[in-house]
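Quick one:
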Amino acid sequence: MRITRYTDYALRVLIQLALQPRRLTIADMARAYGISRHHLTKVVHQLQRLGYVETQRGQTGGVRLARPAADIRVGKVVRDMEPDLALVECFHGEDRCAITPYCELRVVFEQGLRRFLETLDGYTLEDMVRGERRQLIRILEPPSFG
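Output:
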């Protein structure tokens, strides 16, 4: 199983926001992770559309979590952000595999995917920042100018 970079970025954004009580800018988050501001803007827009974050424009604007980190399930974020969780062709209706009617591999993959997502559902965003909170904050802290 492999998640897309888009979902990876979404999880990174949520982790960083869970560590900060104040609004962060997309530029600050992009700089902290060394990733494209353009890509991160798309990710934040999707997270906002899905109700994970709130955005505010202007001088005091930025991004923050729309609800407590303890209420955000990692599995739900992955399901919401991933465009396609089909591990193999036979998960789709346009399956052209000759052995599909007799193959047990699909059942095995379906069970594996279900267990993978169930495992992720067992964790919240709060769980992701609980252990190494101080170290994560230090690494992701935007530089202060003053």
